[in-house]
Structures are given as C-alpha cells and as structure tokens.
Design goal:
Length: 83
C-alpha cells in the first residue's frame, strides 16, 4: 500500500552521515543558498539558489528537520491557536 508498487527505488546518500538510503525513504530538504560579492556600486552580483539534499531518517530526526506526524499536528494546532 505505502510503496505504490514502484519496484526498486534509486539509492541516495545522506548529506550528514553518508549512509545509503532508498530515495522514497529519505527525508528531502531544500536549502536556500545566497551568495553576494558585497561590492558597493553597480558591480555587486548576488545569486540565490536552492539546493535539495537528502537525509536518512535518524539524521533528519536528530537535526529536527523531520519529526513524527503527531508532533507536527501538535505544533500546527499551537500555531493556529495564536493566530
């Protein structure tokens, strides 16, 4: 039911520990990168890009990128209370 009969999924390596994990099991996280030359004037060049990295379940939980659904629902309810 959960895997939707995709067959063998491609493996990715964790960005933190290097563990090899199937792509559908890994936690996908998009990081925003911002580079600038910090020049005053017309020569200043800025670049903003997005980089997608994959984490294994244990590294995602440890760095608080991924949390259980129950905890996510609890946080969402708290945010809705204050709005």
């Amino acid at each position: 039911m959960g895997k939707k009969r995709r067959g063998r999924e491609r493996s990715v390596s964790c960005a933190n520990c290097g563990r090899t994990v199937p792509r559908d099991k890994a936690v996908e996280y998009t990081k925003r990168t911002h580079f600038t030359t910090d020049l005053k004037g017309d020569d200043n060049v800025t670049f903003t890009g997005f980089n997608t990295v994959h984490y294994c379940i244990s590294c995602g939980k440890h760095s608080k990128i991924f949390e259980k659904k129950k905890e996510q629902a609890k946080r969402k309810r708290e945010r809705e209370m204050y709005e």
